[in-house]
Sequence to fold (156 residues):
Amino acid sequence: MKTPYILLALGAGLFASCNQQGGQQQTNVVQDSVPPVVEKEKSGHCFEKVLGRDTIQLRITMHDSVATGTLVYNFFEKDKNTGQFNGIVSNGIIRGKYVFYSEGVESSRPVIFKISDHEAYEALADSVDHQGLPIFNSDNAALKFDNIPLVEGACK
Fold:
């Protein structure tokens, strides 16, 4: 009576070991025949604008067409806004969403930057909606930008 159980256990062990060897061989064939994927390099940039006692800082990392980072607005004698920036890059224009904290409350709003050489220009809104959020033109060529840029420098 014990013999069928022993044979069953031996058969299962033999089957498992055959599958392991076969899986390893197949993996080696696949690895050898597929060239390694070369990931595009991520580029990190830090931009800053200081006007009197007001400071704006933008730290972004761009990978393919995605930009992520932090954005800080520190206006003298006003509440500081610090948050995360996520956007899509197209022809030097980054359209994104800024999620930030001010006065202990989380808020978000759209932001747009034009990256040119070693400068970043923030887009000026065409209008404001009923919630106070900026509205930008959907055509990149029609966007208006601040004439004073954030200048690229060493990340702090």
Residues 2-33 form the longest helix (32 residues). Helices lie at 2-33.
